[in-house]
Amino acid sequence: MAATAPEQAGTSAETQPRQPIWLRCEKKPFEHRSALTPTTAKTLLDNNFEVFVERDPQRIFDDAEFEAVGCKLVPNNEWPSAPVEVPIIGLKELPESTDPLPHTHIQFAHCYKQQGGWTDVLRRFQQGKGTLYDLEFLEDPESRRRVAAFGFHAGFAGAAAGALALAAQQKDGGKGVLKGLKPYKNEDAMVAEVSEALESVEGGKNNVKVLVIGALGRCGSGAVDLFRKAGLTEENIVKWDMAETAKGGPFQEILDVDIFVNCIYLSKPIPKFITSEFMAKAGDSRKLAVVVDVSCDTTNPHNPIPIYDINTTFPEPTVAVDTKGVGRRCTVVSIDHLPTLLPREASEQFSADLLPSLLKFPQRTSEPVWTNAEKLFKQKLEEARVDDEKNGIKA
């Protein structure tokens, strides 16, 4: 392999061994974000870490930016050959495989809420005796809030995608399709394009009404912020949270807006927000044309928006809803890595929020943010084992 674990710098009270950490490349198509940035990597280096960075032409940060702060560059996708004691950090899930995982991985694994293929992922850790610290479940022990999340930028980018989808849809007699999405240079460029697109819809942007559910959270506040900056009037940005959804759906109010953005964190079964049958029953009175499911619980059996069954992509951002041939056309945006539309800003914010916890990683056997995450991993590992056993699958 191209790199070895750092040499032990000594064992005196003044000099402790350096903590290695390995930033892997991202294999998810069109994923440009990074769990570490040159800025946060430099802070780790200054705090007795050894930072290995895989070369990655897809990452928004150039390899040279990491090299310039003192990181050790290693070949692309070399992490399987890294010493087993070196923890691997990344963002999105690993490519599907049956290879055992012996390393410690810090990443979003999307397997703790019984998503499709969840036992396959956990089985790899079981077989390799590795450990998973899922970024979605790293929590501050006092507030019980996630220590780092892409929520704000997910909501911001999701709202932008929804607005662009609405504008595209109104073309060609209501049959237009959003052709594709690409990362923006910065937030200003995104807002400018969205504002122009909304002005092109029938009646202009003052005629566009949106509903954000989960508006008080990180994700929802991002969606609201985008709509405000793009020029929607405050009265046309309907903001709902737990109080408004407590009565249980389906909700007529969703049908009465042009764009519905779902930003809730699904932790238990809840009544459906909307269904295809509910939409069809409304007929031509339905205004709803675009649904953005930022939460993207596509394969979760309790998904409160069961009007689609696939994750969409940047090349094909929308999927049509089966409205039983009744009423206007409706499409769904269900991209599960929306923040990569603003990869630099999103990465800097997330990595900075994660940094205080990473600095405590050398004490992971005693620091609550890490011990609690490992306890949850072991719990989910056991749940997966039981499920496999029930289905006649051996670890």
Report on this structure.
The protein is α/β, with parallel strands linked by helices. The protein is built from 11 helices and 12 strands. 43% of the residues are buried. Pathway: Amino-acid biosynthesis; L-lysine biosynthesis via AAA pathway; L-lysine from L-alpha-aminoadipate (fungal route): step 3/3. Its EC number is 1.5.1.7.
Q: Summarize the amount of helix as a percent range.
A: 25-40%
Instruction: Report the structural category.
Output: alpha/beta
Encode the helix/strand succession as letters: EHEHEEEHEHHEHEHHEHEEEHH
State the shape: globular
Largest sheet: 6 strands, parallel
Question: Regions with pLDDT < 50 over 5+ consecutive residues?
Answer: 1-14
* Average pLDDT over all residues: 93
The portion of residues forming beta strands comes to 5-15%
Distance between the termini: 29 Å
Radius of gyration: 22 Å
Treating each run of at least 4 consecutive H or I residues as one helix, how many helices?
11
Strand order of the largest sheet: 3-2-1-4-5-6
Brief digest:
With 395 residues, this protein is an alpha/beta fold.
